[in-house]
């Protein structure tokens, strides 16, 4: 039995065991009941958030700083004042743009105390998860959730998060001092609160960096961005993309491409692009694996992927342009396409994107770096009225600085939520409000949690999708930063490194341990240092 077959057999056994195969029939029935109760409570928590219709009333003076188009989008109260609904599309602009500190605080407090009933729902949910984990032989739910991931244990997650947080403290302290000083200049001797972070981070970044994102958008026509992304990935990973003419597709805007190995000409797979908006279409940018690659009776079933987005094909008869955030997002998702196509695992279960969740985002996060380097940015940009004029060097440098500036405090805030998620899934009967208060002051350099708020009642990631695994995004970013800095930063289009990455990291899929693959590629165990350095300026 070779290593891939052995790993597959072990995986199947573990999967059955995690679903209760080695339990008695009575305990299996209990496991089913627990899963049903967990599902019901999870959906109740989300439903409570979705059904919340709380709004605040403000007059125009209290909303100074918000653009006219935003104010026009708000419903009016009977007295003619504006209704601000406690949803992110209203809350985020106010926290970032409103010049009135009392308004920002009112909105932040109201947003942070939504759905107080969810606290008891979450407490019951955590109790059931711990019960389920113990039934399956685990100490707690966090150990169950991390057992088959790169992190491998809750202890390792705590060590990872605390190490990152400690490494960022000095840089985050400098950021906070600058923000406090800026608030003193703007508003006088009012104390700086966590609700001030979005507004003053945006202000100081705009002061330090001369970036007009409206102008930047003019340099990213959709078709040019797409051809540039194709070129980067083809050159880096030794691939060739060829559009399939007259392919049978579900809409005239959909395109189908074949992927070939550049050297051998081997047909490796297909991908569909369905990137333009239309009514009734799924609203997010993502990649769907339509068919996983696998080995069947000495032949290869080739993989097929679909990339979906919602870009505007034309605006007033002019070709569609992309916001810079959309460029980064498209590059990220196309990284998943490349990963899906290059995965050569023999078993469909280890193929495509059916990989360790701590690992699957690393290649795509790695490719985001090409959106911030001058030489690659020039490949994917060109002024929409004259595409021979790419984005200029100074703007490229500003975009890179924008990415890194004032990122330490923001990351510490993410770590705060990750630690909360990990602690409640590692311990029984946790005082969630007290825990959040303690963590907030500790991690956020003395900044207290907003009085009267209860983040645990409006934290859906710990309820569905990322329960005990909220750390995973930061984990993936750390590995991606290490790979980029070590192998690509000084030579962006190094095809030897690209092919080595394709063969060592992308090709094995889930048939090999992720940490072993990354260590083989780097020539050493991965390190957090490159990631930490990227947050220090």
Total number of beta strands:
11
Please report the distance between the alpha carbons of the first and last residues. Answer: 51 Å
Bin the helical content. 40-55%
Report the sheet with the most strands, covering strand number, pairing sense and barrel closure: 5 strands, mixed
The percentage of residues in β strands lies in: 5-15%
Numbering strands along the chain, what is their spatial order in the largest sheet?
3-4-5-9-6
- 3D shape: globular
CA radius of gyration: 25 Å
Helix count, DSSP H or I runs of 4 or more residues: 21
User: Which stretches of 5+ consecutive residues score pLDDT under 50?
Assistant: none
Structural class: alpha+beta
Description:
- There is one protein chain.
- The protein is an alpha+beta fold.
- 52% of the residues lie in helices and 10% in strands.
- The protein contains 21 helices and 11 strands.
- A 5-stranded mixed β-sheet has the order 3-4-5-9-6, with helices on one face.
- Helix 2 (25-51) runs antiparallel to helix 6 (118-135).
- It starts with a helix and ends with a helix.
- The mean pLDDT is 95.
Q: Any key phrases for this structure?
A:
10% strand; globular; 21 helices; 537 residues; alpha+beta
Short structural summary:
The chain is of the alpha+beta class. 52% of the residues lie in helices and 10% in strands. The longest helix is centred in the first third of the chain and has 34 residues, at 154-187.
Lay out the secondary structure.
Blueprint: H1 3-18, H2 25-51, E1 55-58, H3 68-73, E2 82-85, H4 88-97, H5 101-112, H6 118-135, H7 141-146, H8 154-187, H9 197-208, H10 213-217, H11 222-237, E3 239-243, E4 255-261, E5 267-276, E6 286-291, E7 294-296, E8 299-301, E9 304-311, E10 314-315, E11 318-319, H12 324-342, H13 362-368, H14 374-379, H15 393-404, H16 408-424, H17 432-443, H18 472-488, H19 495-506, H20 514-522, H21 529-534
Parallel strand pairs: 5-9
Antiparallel strand pairs: 1-2, 3-4, 4-5, 6-9, 7-8, 10-11
Helix pairs in contact: 2-6, 4-9, 8-16, 11-12, 12-13, 13-18, 16-17, 19-20
